[in-house]
Amino acid sequence: MSQTTVNQLIAGIGGAHVTAFFIVLARVTPLFFLAPLFSSKMIPARVRAIIAVALSVGLTPVATHGQHMPGAPLEVAGLIVQSLLVGFAFAFAVGIVFAALHHVGALIDSIAGFGFAGLIDPAQGGQGGVLTSAYSLIGLVIFIAIGGDAWMLRGLSRTFDLVPLTHGPRVSSLTALATQSFGQIFPAALELAAPALLALLITDVAFGMVSRVVPQLNVFAVGFPVKVGVALLVVSATLPFLAGWMSGQLSESVGSALHALRIA
């Protein structure tokens, strides 16, 4: 490629394209802080930054179609902040699904006794129980298997039609979306953990009755391994239904986010 061709390419990239790129980058960046898979601590920060820039470069021509980019610094800064809000709202609505999975494992760990042993969760980058880490990793595998990353990217590209780069969303709509998404964490976790919690409750009641009938029996020594076995058995039996649950939750989360952005 000659120097003249390079100069022509550089001249063809005007200030409006650079401005649009940074506004698009502001909307893409929250995915790598809140969204599943994209925010995984197993992916190095430098790699995530490269992917964010690559996605922004690819989405900029789509996002700028029919848009007139402002040149004033204050206007550009305001559009970047508004784009960040849209990106955080979308990523938060989808990240709720993995937050619910994390709480499912934490609930079962605390009742079954796995909470006594803490492991490093490679997906979240924190410390949790055995089942907390297991649910996070299994959820990540299912997310990739059902094409959740493609859903995320299609939903993100759809946000540029609902809230163009040069238009700001209504903060009240984004706040309502965040509140609604946050309120779904515990009910979704309780729904998924209900079979294991019910089985463990029945086990505790059974051992309580046994301790009244046979007081000399050390219920704690016998009950602890039994509760662990019951928890593992029920969790193994319910894992095949996890893929369908995640598919429905992801579809609902993306739909709710896009609906809120359409209102905004």
Please bin the fraction of helical residues.
over 70%
Radius of gyration: 24 Å
Question: Which strands sit side by side, in order, in the main sheet?
Answer: 1-2
In terms of DSSP E residues, the strand content is under 5%
| Basic shape | elongated
Alpha-beta classification: mainly alpha
Number of strands: 2
- Element pattern in H and E: HHHHHEEHHHHHH
What integer is the average pLDDT? Answer: 79
Largest sheet properties? 2 strands, antiparallel
Q: How many alpha or pi helices?
A: 11
Distance between the termini: 46 Å
List low-confidence stretches: none
Number of domains: 1
What would your notes on this structure say?
The protein has 264 residues and is mostly helical. It has one domain. The chain has 11 helices and 2 strands. The chain has helices at 3-12, 15-28, 31-34, 45-63, 73-112, 130-145, 148-162, 171-182, 185-213, 219-238, 242-263; strands spanning 119-120, 127-128. A two-stranded antiparallel sheet has the order 1-2. β1 and β2 form a beta hairpin. α5 (73-112) packs parallel to α8.
Helix and strand layout, with pairings?
Elements: H1 3-12, H2 15-28, H3 31-34, H4 45-63, H5 73-112, E1 119-120, E2 127-128, H6 130-145, H7 148-162, H8 171-182, H9 185-213, H10 219-238, H11 242-263
Antiparallel strand pairs: 1-2
Helix pairs in contact: 2-4, 2-5, 5-6, 5-7, 5-8, 5-9, 5-11, 7-11, 8-11, 9-10
